[in-house]
Amino acid sequence: MNSRPVQDIAARLISRAVPSLTALSLLATPLFAQEESTSTFAVLGKAGIIGFFIMFLSIVALAVIIENFVSLNRDKLAPPELIDEIQALFDEGQYQEAMELCENEPSFFTNVAGAGVAKIGHSFSVIEQSISEMGDEESIRLHQKIGWLSLIANIAPMMGLLGTVSGMVKAFNEIASSGGQANPADLAKGISEALLTTLLGLVVAIPTTAAFAFLRNRLVKTVIEVGAIVEDLFERFRPESA
Questions:
Q1: Radius of gyration over alpha carbons of the chain, in Å?
Q2: 139-177 pLDDT tens trace
Q3: What is the DSSP letter of 240?
Q4: Residue 135 φ/ψ, nearest 5 degrees
């Protein structure tokens, strides 16, 4: 199978995602820069260990998005050439060859179709049930892959909230230790950490949520399409109604 279109899609995704993440990171600098010149990494460093953990989540999220964008591609889950080849083998009645092809070329389509081919010779209800069970199993497996994005999208703002609380606790501890006479500059570190972690949490959660929704909807559409193809493929074994 020609992987060039998939590689082109991945390249376009990376070229769009990286500048976006860089721009979002740079937003933190003018918001919290002081009189002296401050680099983006120095500003992000003020977010503390929680802020760095959120940035780590952003890297993981980007990697998962790219991997799923490529692996959950329609032509990956159901290669058109395999569909045509299996249909041709069915038309010729070469079911053993079709089974071997499904075993040698694993994909969402061949796994589901192979489950049906293995039951040829049984009643149509048995074939249909085998296809349905394998389809559900494969669908769950694929949805689990993108489920990590949902997890990250939920954890990131919670980590941001944790950083907010941590930063405010530091600020109030500074006030308490100074007997209520704390210098505003002494409070800036805790407040800066609180605001930065909130910002970083949202910056990670919002695009990750959008990517999860996009990939989930595309996956559901592909699963329905492949299901219809497999159903049509085995329709020839349905007994004619009296």
A1: 26
A2: 999 999 999 999 999 999 999 888 888 877 777 676 677
A3: P
A4: -60, -45
DSSP 88-128: HHHHTT-HHHHHHHHHHS-SHHHHHHHHHHTTBTB-HHHHH
109 burial level (CB within 10 Å; 0-12, 13-18, 19+)? buried
Q: In the chain, where are the structural domains located?
A: 4-237
User: For residue 86, how many other CB atoms are within 10 A of its CB?
Assistant: 26
For 49-89, the pLDDT digits (tens) are 888 889 899 999 999 999 999 888 888 899 999 999 999 99
Q: Averaging pLDDT over each range in 35-49, 205-219, 227-241, which range is the top one?
A: 205-219
139 phi and psi, to 5 degrees? -65, -45
Residue 37 pLDDT > 90, yes or no?
no
| Residues 93, 95, 97: CA angle, nearest 5 degrees | 110
Q: Are 178 and 170 in contact, with CB atoms under 8 Å apart?
A: no
